[in-house]
Write a structure and sequence with these properties.
Elements lengths: L3 H33 L1 H22 L2 H16 L4 H34 L6 H8 L2 H16 L3 H26 L4 H30 L17 H33 L3 H20 L2 H9 L1 H10 L3 H38 L2 H10 L3 H16 L3 H26 L1 H27 L5 H26 L7 H21 L5 H12 L10
C-alpha cells in the first residue's frame, strides 16, 4: 500500500523542480522579451497557437491514458504487465506522433501564408513539425514515471530539457541568428526543438534502467487486452476540438486588434504583452499547485478502483483546502505588488496593468487546475474535455465579437467569462461524483479575509520602509516574503489553517512507518 509519505515526497520534488523550471522560464522569458521585443513575442504566441494544436494531435490523450493504464495494472499485477502496457502506449504514440509530423510539415506553407498571413512563420512551423514525434513518445515515459511514483525521473528530464533549451537559445540569439524578428523567432524555436529531442533520448535511457524494478512472477502475467485507445481517444477527440478552437482564438486576437485600430506590429505587441509576458507571471506560482494536482490522478484512481469513497472525499477536501489557501494568498500578493512586479521583471507599466487585472481571477484558475486533476482521476476526463470545448467555443465567439470593439480589454473580458464558466461546471461535477461537500466559510471566506488583512497591513508599511531604497529584485522578494508571512500568521491565528493540519502535514512527511489508508 502506498504511503502518504511517498505521495508528499514525490509531490514536493515535482513542485520544487517545476517551480525552479518556472522561475528559470519566466526569467528566460524576461530576457527574451527584452532581446527581441513585444512584436516577436506576439509572433511566437501566434505560431504557438498552431503548434499547440499539432502537439495535441501528436499526443492524442496518451499521457493520461498511460497514467491510468499503468496505475490500474500495477494495482492488479504488481508490475508484471508493465512491458505490455508500455508497448501498447508507445505504438499509439508513434502512430499519432508520425501523423502530426507529416501533416504540419506538408501544411506549413498554406498555414503560414493563408491562415496566419505572415510569411515569417513558414520556416518556424516547418522546424516545429519535427519535434512532434519525440514529444508524443516522451509523453508516454512521463506518464509511466508518474504512475510508478518515480517523480524524480520526470524532474531530471525537465531540468535537462530546460538547460539545453536556454543555453542553445541564448547562443543562437547572441551569435548565430539574424537580427530580425524572424531570425529571433527561429532561434527561440530551434533551442526548444533540440531540447525536446534530447528529452526523448534521456527518457528512454531512464526507462531502460527503471524497468529492472519490475520482474514478472510465475503465473502473474495475464493476456487481458490492453485498450489504450479506449481511454485516450475520447480525451483526444475532445482535445482536438478544444485545441482547434483555441488556435482560431489566437489567430483572431491580432486580427481583432487590427480591426480596433492597431497596426500589425502594434497588434502583435499588445497580444505579446498580455499573452506572452503578463499571463506567464500570473500562472507562475501555479507550478507548485499543478505538481501536487498531477500526482493526485494515480492516487485517486486507486481509491476509485478500491471503491473507497471516504478516501476520495478526504483527498478532494485536502486538495480544495490547499488550492484555495494558496491561490487566494497569491491573488492578494499579485494585486498588491503588480506595479513592482511589472517594473522589476519587464520595466513595463503595461505588463503591470495586465497583471493587476488578471490577479482577481487567480483563485478560480488555480482551483480549476485541482478540480480537473480530481475529475481525471475519477475517470471523468470526457466530461472535463466537453466543458473545455464549450469554454473554447465561447472564447472564440467573445474574441470575435468583443476584441474589434473593445481592443485588448475585450480579450480580458473573454478570459474572465470563460475561466468562471469552466470552473463552475467542473466544480459542480466533482461535487456530484465524489460526494464531497465543501464548507464555504472555511475554504473561501476565511482565507479571503486573511489575505485582505495581510495586504492592507503590509502595503502601507512596505511603502514607508522602501521610500529611500531603489526598487529591485531584492526589494520585491522582501515585499513578497512580508505579505506571505503576514498571511500565514493570520491563517494560523484565525484557525483557518488549524495547527492540527500543520501537525498532519509534518507527520505525513516524516512518519517512520507506513500509514494505512482510512477504511471505508
Amino acid at each position: 500500500m502506498k504511503t502518504k509519505q511517498q505521495y508528499f515526497y514525490n509531490a514536493l520534488l515535482a513542485a520544487a523542480v517545476t517551480l525552479l523550471m518556472r522561475t528559470v522560464g519566466v526569467s528566460f522569458n524576461v530576457y527574451v522579451s527584452g532581446k527581441v521585443g513585444a512584436e516577436a513575442m506576439g509572433l511566437i504566441s501566434l505560431v504557438s497557437g498552431v503548434y499547440n494544436f499539432a502537439v495535441t494531435l501528436a499526443t492524442s490523450g496518451i499521457h493520461l491514458a498511460t497514467v491510468r493504464t499503468f496505475s490500474e495494472r500495477l494495482k492488479q499485477s504488481d508490475g508484471a504487465e508493465n512491458k505490455r502496457c508500455l508497448a501498447a502506449c508507445l505504438s499509439y504514440a508513434a502512430f499519432f506522433g508520425t501523423l502530426a509530423t507529416l501533416l504540419l510539415a506538408l501544411l506549413a506553407k498554406p498555414i503560414a501564408l493563408y491562415v496566419l498571413k505572415d510569411a515569417r512563420t513558414l520556416r518556424a512551423l516547418t522546424l516545429l513539425a519535427f519535434t512532434l514525434l519525440p514529444i508524443a513518445i516522451s509523453a508516454v515515459f512521463n506518464g509511466y514515471f508518474t504512475a510508478v511514483r518515480r517523480a524524480y525521473k520526470n524532474a531530471l528530464v525537465q531540468v535537462s530539457e530546460q538547460g539545453v533549451k536556454i543555453g542553445l537559445t541564448c547562443y543562437l540569439l547572441m551569435v548565430a541568428a539574424p537580427k530580425t524578428v524572424e531570425g529571433s523567432l527561429l532561434a527561440i524555436l530551434m533551442g526548444g526543438a533540440v531540447a525536446e529531442t534530447g528529452s526523448f533520448l534521456f527518457n528512454l535511457v531512464l526507462y531502460l534502467f527503471d524497468k529492472r524494478h519490475f520482474r514478472a512472477k510465475a503465473g502473474s502475467v495475464t493476456h487481458r487486452k490492453i485498450n489504450v485507445a479506449a481511454v485516450a481517444l475520447p480525451v483526444a477527440i475532445s482535445a482536438y476540438m478544444r485545441s482547434g478552437l483555441l488556435t482560431i482564438e489566437h489567430i483572431l486576437i491580432p486580427r481583432g486588434l487590427q480591426a480596433y485600430g492597431a497596426g500589425n506590429s502594434a497588434a502583435l505587441a499588445a497580444y505579446g504583452t498580455l499573452h506572452g509576458m503578463a499571463l506567464p507571471v500570473v500562472l507562475y506560482p501555479a507550478a507548485i499547485l499543478s505538481s501536487f494536482s498531477a500526482l493526485l490522478i494515480p492516487e485517486i484512481t486507486e481509491q476509485q478502483a478500491a471503491q473507497n469513497r471516504r478516501e476520495i472525499r478526504y483527498i478532494a477536501g485536502r486538495a480544495y483546502q490547499t488550492a484555495l489557501l494558496f491561490s487566494i494568498g497569491t491573488a492578494a500578493m499579485m494585486l498588491a505588488l503588480s506595479g513592482e512586479i511589472g517594473e522589476v521583471l519587464y520595466g513595463s507599466s503595461e505588463v503591470a496593468y495586465f497583471i493587476k487585472r488578471l490577479a482577481p481571477l487567480i483563485p478560480i484558475m488555480y482551483l480549476d487546475t485541482a478540480t480537473d486533476a480530481l475529475l481525471k482521476g475519477l475517470g471523468e476526463q470526457v466530461y472535463s474535455m466537453n466543458v473545455n470545448i464549450a469554454d473554447a467555443l465561447i472564447s472564440v465567439i467573445l474574441v470575435w465579437v468583443l476584441v474589434p470593439v473593445l481592443g485588448i480589454h475585450g480579450y480580458l473580458i473573454t478570459i474572465y467569462v470563460t475561466e468562471i464558466f469552466n470552473a463552475a461546471l467542473s466544480i459542480c461535477r466533482l461535487l456530484k461524483v465524489s460526494g464531497f461537500r465543501p464548507r464555504v466559510s472555511r475554504l473561501l471566506l476565511a482565507p479571503l479575509g486573511c489575505a485582505i488583512g495581510a495586504a492592507t497591513v503590509a502595503v502601507p508599511l512596505l511603502t514607508r520602509l522602501s521610500r529611500s531604497i531603489p526598487l529591485g529584485g531584492g526589494v520585491l522578494a522582501f515585499h513578497i516574503f512580508v505579505i506571505a508571512a503576514l498571511y500565514l500568521l493570520l491563517l494560523i491565528l484565525t484557525k483557518t489553517l488549524p495547527t492540527g493540519d500543520i501537525r498532519w502535514l509534518f507527520s505525513s512527511l516524516f512518519a517512520k512507518e507506513k500509514s494505512a489508508v482510512r477504511e471505508k
